[in-house]
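Input chain follows. Return structure tokens only.
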Amino acid sequence: MSGRRAHMGMSVTISAARAQDAEQILKLQYLCYQSEAELYGDYAIEPLTQSLDDLRAEIGRGHALVARLGDEVIASVRGTVDEDGTARIAKLIVHPRMQRHGLGGRLLDAIEAHFAAEPSARRFQLFTGHRSEGNLRLYRSRGYVPVAREELGPRHTLVTLEKEAEARAYAASA
């Protein structure tokens, strides 16, 4: 993991999420997805309707990371690996006041590294809305390529992006 820190007096630490982080993660998720909901005119998107119990169960089923500034959870990401070796990465969220400091990229690198260490992970996959330019830019910069598009409605198309897990080793020299 790179030694870059958010430009603040305190350092940001990244660690596995614990069950007791669920409440902070859900609040952060709710905050972060407001702009997405606004962008697509849809406030019924799953991140805004997810319950605390459901989120706790999701953390238990897969792997979740949080970035903390002191005791505050300021960013998070989670994912699972399915039977065919696809590590599905989801809910990469960074507190609005902490964005543009490279935190999203650090979390993405960290969760990829976690899944790459599991022999079962053959590829990484994630998705985002077609208008979410910042997300698309980040994912492309990390080697993800769009593989599918799904129209959720007249104003919302979901873009699925993926990359092979093996690509990690030589991505640095590319």
